[in-house]
Amino acid sequence: MNVKGYLLDPRCEVAAVCDSDEAVGRQAAADWGAASFYPDFDAMLEDSSLDAIEILTPTHLHHAHVLAALRAGKHVSVQKPVANTIEEAREMGEAAERAGRILRISECFVHYPPLELAKKLVADGAIGKPSGLRIRTLVGQTDSAFQANLRPEGYGWRLDKRSPGGHLFDDMVHKYAMALWLLDLDITSVQAVVRRRDLFMEPCAVIFEYEDPMVLGTMEVQYAPKLYMRSSYYGADEFFEITGDEGQIWVTRATGEMLDLPPVMLFTGTEHGRETTEFRDIDADWGAGFVRSSQHFVDALVNGTPADMSPESATKVLQLCFAVYQASEIAAPVDPRTMTGSVTPTGWADW
User: Fold this and answer.
1) 20 to 30 A from 78, CA-CA: which of 56, 71, 100, 349?
2) Fold entry, domain 109-289+319-330
3) Among 194, 176, 175, which residue's Cα sits nearest to residue 137?
4) DSSP, res 349
5) Among residues 145, 188, 180, 202, which one has the least CA distance to residue 347?
6) Distance of alpha carbon 300 from its chain centroid, rounded?
7) Is the domain defined by 3-107+290-309 classed in CATH 1.10.1060.10?
C-alpha cells in the first residue's frame, strides 16, 4: 500500500528493504527493484546512499526506529499512530528539529481525494460557516482478496500490552486526524462511552467540543461482525458529514464502498431554491490516499514543502485518542490538550 506511490514517482527509487523475515524482505526487494536487502535495521542505516526511510514497523517500535534513523541523518516517514505515549511523540519531533531532518507521520486519510475535496469545499465557503462534523465508522466483514491475504502474524502486537488499546488506538487514529484536520480547529473537550467486543473492537459514541464554541462534533463506531460489505480492502466503511450554516457535505466512503452514492455530495439551499451537487469524477479508491501520501513525502524532500502530518499534528491526534479512552473511563469531559503519557482502557489485554 505504501510502496506503490514511491514506485510510480520518477523522482525517487526504492533503494533498499529491511525486514527481520529474510524471505519476505528479499522478495519485497526483488519485487520493488531495490538493490539492497538488510536483515538488520542498524546496518541499513549505515548505508550512506539512502536519503530517507519509510518506517512500517509496529507502533511500539516507532520511537526507537525513528530516533535511530534521525541520528543516522535520514529523513523519516513513519506510520500512524506516531507512538505509544505523548512523550515519545514529542521526543521524536524534537529530535527531527535538532537533526534538521523531515519527520512526517504517514496519514493516508489526509491525502484521500474525497476528503481533500471536502476540506477544500469547507475552506472555499461552500457551506458557509462550519457548525458540525459527524464521523461514522462501521466495522464488519468482507471477502476481499486484500483482507484474505493479510499475514495473521503481523497482528499479534495489536492484541496485547505492546499496544495501549485496541481498534480505537490502531484504526480510529485516522478519524481523530480527520476530526482535527477537516475543520482546522483544535478540540477542547471530549465526552465518550466506549465498549469492548471480540477483544479488539471498541464500539463507541463520542462528542467533541471545538475551540469555536459554536462547532460540535460526533464520532461513532459500530461493530457488525456478521455483516459482509463491499470493499476492496478491509471490512470497514466510513461516512463523514460536515454541516455549515448554508449547507452540508457528505463523504460517503473511504476504506469500504457500502453505499451506492457519489463519493462526495454537496447540499445547499436558500429560500429561493435548493441544489445538490454530486462529485462522481474523483478517485475514490482508498488506495489512492496511500499513493498520494508517499508522493507527498517525496514532494517535501524534493521541494522543501511542509510534510503532512507533522509531529505536532500527530501528537494532537494521539492526545485525542487517549482523551476518548480517559473520558469513558471517568465518565466526565476531558480536555485532550492536557493529556500526557498514555491511557489504557480497563481490562485491556488481560487475557
Assistant:
1) 349
2) Dihydrodipicolinate Reductase; domain 2 (3.30.360)
3) 175
4) T
5) 202
6) 19
7) no
What's residue 303's pLDDT?
96
HSE-CB for 266 with a 13 A CA cutoff = 20
End-to-end CA distance of the chain: 32
| pLDDT attached to residue 98 | 98
What are the φ/ψ torsions at residue 333 (nearest 5 degrees)?
A: -65, 150
Whole-model pTM: value is 0.96
Rounded to 5 degrees, φ, ψ at 235 are: -80, 65
Grid cell of 216 as nine digits: 460540535
For residues 78-91, give the mean pLDDT. 98
As a whole number of angstroms, the distance between CA 221 and CA 147 comes to: 20
Domain range annotation of the chain: 3-107+290-309, 109-289+319-330
Mean pLDDT of 42-57: 97
Q: How far apart are CA 223 and CA 28, in angstroms?
A: 34
